[in-house]
Each structure stands twice: as structure tokens, then as C-alpha cells.
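[job 0412] stage=complex_fold ligand=coenzyme A status=START
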Amino acid sequence: MSDASKGPAGADAGTPAVSIRRVTRRDAAGILAIHNEVVTRSTAIFDILARSLDEQVQWVADHSGGHPAIVATELDDSGIEDIVGFASLSPFRARPAYATTVEDSVYVREDRHGRGYGRALLGELLVLAVDGGFHSVIARIADHNEASIALHAAYGFEMVGVEREVGRKFGRWLDVVQMQRLL
Ligand SMILES: CC(C)(COP(=O)(O)OP(=O)(O)OC[C@H]1O[C@@H](n2cnc3c(N)ncnc32)[C@H](O)[C@@H]1OP(=O)(O)O)[C@@H](O)C(=O)NCCC(=O)NCCS
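[job 0412] stage=complex_fold status=DONE, emitting C-alpha cells
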């Protein structure tokens, strides 16, 4: 894939550069930590229970073919990669006529929010969606998540619907906003 290595937008001098690449099995634990943080602290994922490492390894396998996943990584002082975000394309619906549509997901570790990593991940993901021959990308965004709505709008996604109170987490009803971009 293209080398998307770049310093994050607005980063201070000395902030590690972020690189974006396709996921490998070795990334499962780093992705799991971010995923489970979102599950337990936020409404952005509708899971209630934390995922196991085995389940995350299976997720990586499921996103190593036509529906890819990517990771954003930084190098620490010892040259070891640190996973600071991930993004994926998943099937939108199982029935075959939906096969040219995908659903995207983007997650950035909380201590790295607002540094341009989400923008870099979604940009790379859309390149992969075009390369994969997909025609339409849907984002399903829970709880009127302003950051995610703004991120997708910045890439030309348009609001196409709101599913009212389809979820319930932390004792609250949750809407899901659908945004779409045709490729
Ligand atoms: C949503 C998320 C992926 C954005 O990633 P990020 O790295 O923090 O965002 P970026 O720094 O790349 O910002 C990209 C754009 O998003 C928007 N944005 C980011 N944070 C925002 C915020 N808190 N409020 C409003 N808009 C915001 C801005 O339009 C920004 O563009 P700009 O920098 O030109 O103003 C990240 O906040 C996240 O992982 N949140 C938790 C999980 C989640 O909600 N994922 C989405 C599920 S649908």
C-alpha cells in the first residue's frame, strides 16, 4: 500500500511520526487495547463486553483479505511499534447484491485524539476501498458523535439517515447516524 508516513497535523516538534500500514496478526493485542477501551468507556461501539485476544485475532484474519484493516503506528524510543489507531472496511450486509458496499470504522487511541490520525486512517481506507472496487461506503455513527461526523464530512460523506433509539448502552437510548460516500 502507499506509504502514508507523515507527521501528524498540528503536532509539536518531537511528536513521533505516524505510519499507516495493513494489519498483521501481531497487531491484535494493540488493536484489542483500543477496541476494549472504546467498548468500556464509550458509545461508539455497541458491544457491551470486552473482546478476548482470540476474538481479536479472528477479527484480524477476517480483515486480511478483500475487506482490509489498517493500523496507525508510532515508533517508541527503542524503535518498537506502538499501535495508536486502526480502521477497517467490513461487509455492509450479507446478501450478495450489497457486495459493492462496505462499512467503515475508525478508532484512534484516546491519548492521540485530535492529531490528524483519524484523518490519515480514513484517507488511506478510502484509497483501499477504491482499489478494492467498492462503489459505496457507509459510516454508521452512534450517539451523534461529533468528531466522527466531522471526520467523515471532511471526506465528502453525506448524512443519509438517522436510526432513532436503536441502541441502548449506559442506560441511554442511542441513535445511529448513517453517512455515505459514493466512490
Ligand atoms: C472519531 C475519531 C476517529 C477522530 O480521530 P482523530 O484522530 O481524533 O481526528 P483528527 O485529529 O484526524 O481530526 C479529523 C477531523 O475530525 C474532526 N474532529 C476531530 N475531533 C473532533 C472533535 N472532538 N469535535 C469535532 N470535530 C472533530 C475535525 O473535522 C477534524 O478535522 P480538522 O482537524 O481539519 O478540524 C477519534 O476521535 C476516535 O477514535 N474516537 C473514539 C472512537 C470513535 O468514535 N470512532 C468512530 C466510530 S463511528
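Residues 38, 42, 44, 106-108, 113-119, 139, 141, 145-148, 150-151, 154 surround coenzyme A (CB under 6 Å).
[job 0412] exit 0
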